[in-house]
Amino acid sequence: MRLSGAGCLSVASGVFKPRSGCIGSWLPRHMYFGQVCDAQGQALDEALAVFMPSPHSYTGEDVAEIHCHGGILLPSLIVDRCVELGARLASPGEFTLRAFLNGKLDLAQAEAVLGLIKAASSGAVRLQARGLSGALSQRVKALRSRLLSLVARLEAEIDFGEEVDSVSASDQCCEAEAIDAGIAKLLRDAHVGKALAQGVTVVLIGPPNAGKSTLWNKLLGEDRALVTPVPGTTRDCLEADCTVGGCFLHLLDTAGLRQSDDYVEQLGMQRTREAVRDADICVVILDGSREWSAEDEEIASLTAASGPLLLLNKRDLGSAVSCGEAAAHFGISENCVLSVGLLDDQYIPLINKHLAERARLVAGDYGEGAVSVNQRQMQALTRAQECLAQYRLGVADGMPCDCLLSDLHRALAFLGEVTGENVSEDILDQIFSQFCLGK
Ligand SMILES: Nc1nc2c(ncn2[C@@H]2O[C@H](COP(=O)(O)OP(=O)(O)OP(=O)(O)O)[C@@H](O)[C@H]2O)c(=O)[nH]1
Ligand SMILES: [Mg+2]
User: Is residue 213 in contact with ligand 1, taking CB distance under 6 Å?
Assistant: First the structure.
């Protein structure tokens, strides 16, 4: 139970009685053992308590914490007693909001706290922990300070004219370009971050009846998708997470692609095409015992750009197409084609190995640079890039310095939105309302 703000010690002293060692006032950051008591002085629990005076606490204010047993009724009795003694309930995210307002965390770090709480994979936890220790903040602040010094030089030129060395147009553009490249790199690392946190997106695609759902089930280790000999069994995209060779994957089974007049099947196939567009990795599954067909042609052209992993399935029924021929059709190297029989588990380790290798390439092998960038931050960074592009166009057109400066000031403001130097109360409300109580 955490109390923050002036007066927290008097509330804590009213509810918690240290057994010994605390005469007069509590020593800072000293853990006391004692009893939590009700208004009549009756013990409610045995607990530990600690006092952390400002500014060396999570919120930067005086903070007292009582470490009692958990449960439902007991903590609520203790909270009630604290409220009787003058405390009030914190609103969602209020401790972290106070920490932000008191300069203990910047906004990107505060959002990493939210990210940590919501993290659904161990990759996401590690990534958000990096964000909490300032991975995103430091990079954005470095770019912002570079931009600030460009602004300062241009402003000096306007204010003092010939007394200062002027910044040549090409120097200005070079600097803006370098800052833009820094933002672009951050956004690329954010993509890696997303792959680590939400899983590398792997889409299984192929004609009906090729064995996509069979593979999906095998990779998940359970019979979740319907598998039947009827072509067109899967009509929707099925999504699930799994770990393959230590890589966290977001795995999609899709509706098979073929010519069809069936309205529902067409809708399903539309989803398949959309899934391919958003995929990090495409795995094409064909029935290798069948001759090459027009359907296969469409799949080849749809996935060509992604350089798919190609599985020629049903090898127990014979091979109508060789790996070399199939590779040529897809424009990929022959070692990206595997001849498999998915009814037999012996091929699964080989498929896993190929999948994990590709997933590691996408996720940069848990690269040091990976950062978590949420949608709000992504938008601010993209807008900053747009302003820099505008600025460079202006320089090329020979626009006057003061007009150019407004683009740079806007870029600065957008970078400031990420770390919170430049953020409205509405945005703060919106961010912190997503936190749960007590954070
Ligand atoms: N002989 C043989 N049959 C297989 C193999 N792999 C899958 N099958 C069978 O092929 C049929 C179709 O498999 P599914 O996994 O449902 O195929 P799908 O690609 O999901 O098909 P749709 O959902 O219709 O697009 C099922 O009867 C499977 O048991 C294999 O390696 N050999
Ligand atoms: Mg299926």
Answer: yes
**218, containing H or E segment:** helix 212-220
pLDDT attached to residue 24: 65
Sort strands 200-205 and 247-253 into parallel, antiparallel or unpaired: parallel
Q: Residue 346 CA: which ligand is closest?
A: 1
Eight-class DSSP state of 325: H
State which of 204, 205, 213, 260 you would mutate to test the pocket of ligand 1, scoring each by most atoms of that ligand within 8 A of its C-beta: 213
At residue 309, the pLDDT reads: 97
Report, as ranges of residue numbers, the positions in the chain whose pLDDT lies below 70.
23-24, 162-165, 364-368
Cβ contact 5:62 at 8 Å: yes
d(CA 205, CA 219) in angstroms, rounded, equals 15
pLDDT tens-digit series, residues 269-323: 999 999 999 899 999 999 999 998 888 999 999 998 889 999 999 999 999 999 9
Mutate to test the pocket of ligand 1, among 216, 226, 227 (most ligand atoms within 8 A of CB): 227
- Cβ–ligand 1 distance for 128 under 6 Å, the answer no
Element (H, E) at 108: helix 107-118
The secondary structure of 363-427 as a DSSP string is: TTTT-TT-----HHHHHHHHHHHHHHHHHHHHHHTT--HHHHHHHHHHHHHHHHHHHTSS--HHH
The end-to-end CA distance of the chain, in Å, is 11
Q: Decide whether any atom of ligand 1 lies within 6 Å of the 256 Cβ.
A: yes
Distance 350 CA to ligand 2 centre (A): 21
C-alpha span between 193 and 108 (Å, rounded): 15
Domains annotated on the chain, with CATH:
2-89 (3.30.1360.120), 135-195+371-432 (1.20.120.430), 200-362 (3.40.50.300)
Q: What are phi and psi of 426, to 5 degrees?
A: -60, -45
Query: Which bin fits 318, alpha (ψ -120 to 50), beta or left (φ > 0)?
Result: left
